[in-house]
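Example 3.2
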Amino acid sequence: MEDDGAQKADCILVLGGDGFGCRIVKAGQLAEQGYAPYVLVDGPRMLMGHETDQTIAYAVGKGFPASLFRAVPLPNPIDSTSEESEYVANNVLRPQHVHKVLLVTSNYHTRRAARILRRAAPWLAVDVVPAPDPYFKFDGWWKTRDGKKTFLFEWMKTISEWWGD
């Protein structure tokens, strides 16, 4: 797990793929604490719209102001952290003159996600803050079925990235 600690940034970036709302809640907390003026929330198209719509609605339901969040709906067929990072870096962060982000993603995903975003945007300073995952604990992931699945999937994705995607 990579954890650079919360630091001032131009914005907070929440990667898509969190079905539990942990990433968006952590990002909302960081924004309310003054680490960045807003949160960029990306996500792919889903059955009833974009993941961003549901994620932001969840955060608002948890008491965060909607004005804190900016949706970045990802176009089809983006479905990997690599494609997601390249798209957001080149189509959102660079045009908005963002030079430093707090990257918020699930605790098990921090190292790979940070490496990919830094490779996609070498001009960008990236500090990572992990969001807790209710089903993945570093001190006992092997004790639960979901923990084992998460560990295995993350390693499969890491190996795939090493091979070029």
